[in-house]
UniProtKB/TrEMBL annotation:
GO biological process per UniProt: small molecule metabolic process
Lineage: Bacteria, Bacillati, Actinomycetota, Actinomycetes, Streptosporangiales
Protein name, UniProt field: HAD family hydrolase
GO function terms (MF aspect): metal ion binding; phosphatase activity
NCBIfam families per UniProt: HAD-SF-IA-v1
């Protein structure tokens, strides 16, 4: 199997939940909401409102905000790239994989401005060989097409196989499996089941990278 490692971005290479908490605190302050509002925003996020347009429609309604949902969402996309961080050890581990001959890439679903901003602000853009963003390509994980684009950007063909590392059971593990990749699932403790069993289960992306280093030796 060729040395191709594709990674999900949110809550895999970066801790989106931590950035979301910072954003929620700022948002509550800016709109003069109570401290309870932060809990409400987090609950709304965790309860599976991944589509931000819908999320902000609910937020607007709940807190009786005058700004449109579209404006609130746009402000969120502008701010989030400045709140996310990629730990230095993650950047270092990516460099280590590349030194071992791996091609590394990012495959992520989300809007172009937000995802691209996060990749650039965190330094991940320079730490990988290529990336494929659903908001730019018009195709979303778990569709194999987005994995194919990411592999191509890394200078290889998906047909020769590789690995997918991510936290989402369907988009990352199901998608990776269907794309013919071996998979490592980042288990964030949500207790969700899998239709496709991952090859490995870890709790931190660093552990996933260690597995890749080991299998390539
Ligand atoms: Mg994710």
């Amino acid at each position: 199997m060729q040395r191709l490692a594709l990674f999900d971005l949110d809550n895999t290479l970066i801790d989106l939940d931590a950035a979301f908490l910072l954003w929620a605190q700022e948002f509550a302050e800016e709109h003069r909401l109570s401290r309870k509002a932060v809990d409400h925003l987090i609950k709304l996020d965790r309860n599976g409102l991944p589509h931000r347009e819908l999320f902000f429609a609910k937020v607007r309604e709940r807190f009786k905000l005058s700004n449109s949902a579209a404006n609130l969402w746009a402000a969120y996309r502008r701010r989030m790239p400045h709140l996310v961080e990629c730990r230095p050890e993650v950047i270092a581990a990516l460099a280590e994989l590349r030194a071992l001959g791996w091609r590394v890439g990012i495959v992520t679903n989300g809007t172009a401005d937000n995802q691209l901003g996060k990749i650039q602000q965190t330094g991940l853009g320079d730490a990988v060989d290529g990336y494929a963003l659903s908001g730019i390509e018009g195709i979303r994980k778990p569709d194999t097409g987005l994995f194919e684009i990411a592999a191509r950007r890394c200078g290889v063909s998906l047909a020769a196989g590789g690995w997918m590392v991510g936290d989402h059971p369907v988009a990352d593990i199901g998608g990776g499996h269907t794309a013919g990749l071996r998979t490592v699932w980042i288990d964030r403790g949500a207790g969700v089941g899998h239709e496709h069993s991952p090859d490995y289960v870890v709790t931190d992306v660093i552990d996933a990278m260690e597995i890749l280093c080991t299998v390539s030796k």
